[in-house]
Amino acid sequence: MNTYAIIALVCAAVVLLLVAVGVVIALRKRGKHSPHAEQERVDGQSAQPSRQGADEGGHGAQPRAPAGQASRPDQTGPSPSQSVEEPESSSSRMTRLRAKLAKSPNPFGKALFTILSKDHLSESDWEDVEDTLLRADVGAEASEQLVDELRSDARVNGEKDPAAVRAMLREKLLAMVDNGQDRSLLASRPGAAKPSVIVMVGVNGTGKTTTAGKLARLFVADGKSVVMGAADTFRAAAADQLETWGSKVGVPVVRSEREGADPASVAFEAAQQAKDSQADLLIVDTAGRLQNKANLMDELGKIRRVVEKNLPVEEVLLVLDATTGQNGMVQAKVFAQAIGVTGIVLTKLDGSAKGGIVVSVQRELGVPVKLVGLGEGPDDLSAFDPESFVDGILGAE
Ligand SMILES: Nc1nc2c(ncn2[C@@H]2O[C@H](COP(=O)(O)OP(=O)(O)OP(=O)(O)O)[C@@H](O)[C@H]2O)c(=O)[nH]1
């Protein structure tokens, strides 16, 4: 093979190589636009909005308006990303909680009805009536009085129509529960101070903080402006708990960052702030305390005194846990002496079969039950309504 032939062969090989490289590059370029690759790109883009969707769902971790309720624009405390809830309206709450109260486990009315509907009441039946009342925490004195009244009522022995016996029992129970006292909160009465102050007191764990939060919602639902004071500086989480309640409905909470700070100074600050901001209400939460700890009880007196440097303390609500029964009575008396109690909040009535405490606490303290807690839901706090309560304990007709 001569030199020219070799050069020609090399040239041909180079040309072939260049053509092959060109084809490979062209194929690769086309490959990038293949339907499969296009699908991947589209999927990649569609994944973006779906992640955004997940983020929107993720707002569930932040405060949300309860189902069926609208969010309000942020007005006071919360950051712009937080929605402010609109608490349930008073009328809707009353209807819902009346139905709930009617279903609450208070079997003593039904037990009494069963005994009193018998044809002949023996001595042991009357003892059963009294036992039933005592077990329901009606208290010894009130139980005895009710039994005496029932025994001397001719209708009990003469009347065997169940509807008539029920009506008679309803009348007697209502007379025991409804002593004619005004149960409205002082803050809701005409001529109330502004800001009107409510101090929450009680032993540990009765539901003071929860009730303070629910109460704030109740006033917000009625269009009032509220400030809360976290004077429970003893339990580390109490101020955070109150702040969570407040932030959901745009209620500012005055607190100390220091655990164990002087509760009276927090209460003083809160009163100052409520006054400066011309709020309608100041709700002060205090630490749970045992009624036999004299220094803690003195502290309550001090809280009251310092608040009164700025504002009159119109209402002191003693929060009692309905499930603790007659123990609550001892507490109630000591608190009434230490700070002066204007009303009772009976919490956890949803979980108690001992509604009779309503009767004993009112009798022995001369203070009305103003509110009842009927659950852990944010709007499960209701004004106490004697008729619904008695209908609840007697059960449906
Ligand atoms: N079922 C039911 N639970 C309630 C009610 N009120 C409060 N609770 C619950 O009772 C528990 C104690 O409530 P808190 O508000 O922390 O009690 P507290 O009195 O502030 O507690 P201390 O500050 O430790 O004295 C919580 O689990 C509440 O959810 C109610 O009406 N019904």
UniProtKB/TrEMBL annotation:
Residue ranges crossing the lipid bilayer per the database entry: 6-27
GO biological process: SRP-dependent cotranslational protein targeting to membrane
InterPro entries: AAA+_ATPase (IPR003593), P-loop_NTPase (IPR027417), Signal_recog_particl_SRP54_hlx (IPR013822), SR_rcpt_FtsY (IPR004390), SRP/SRP_N (IPR036225), SRP54_GTPase_dom (IPR000897), SRP54_N_sf (IPR042101)
Biased composition (Low complexity): 78-92
Gene Ontology annotations for the cellular component aspect, listed alphabetically: cytoplasm; plasma membrane
Region Disordered: start-end pairs: 30-98
Catalytic activity: GTP + H2O = GDP + phosphate + H(+)
Membrane topology of this protein: Peripheral membrane protein
The protein's Enzyme Commission number: 3.6.5.4
GO MF annotation list: GTP binding; GTPase activity; signal recognition particle binding
The entry's keywords: Cell membrane, Cytoplasm, GTP-binding, Hydrolase, Membrane, Nucleotide-binding, Receptor, Transmembrane, Transmembrane helix
Family: Belongs to the GTP-binding SRP family. FtsY subfamily.
Biological role: Involved in targeting and insertion of nascent membrane proteins into the cytoplasmic membrane. Acts as a receptor for the complex formed by the signal recognition particle (SRP) and the ribosome-nascent chain (RNC).
Protein name: Signal recognition particle receptor FtsY
Organism: Bifidobacterium xylocopae
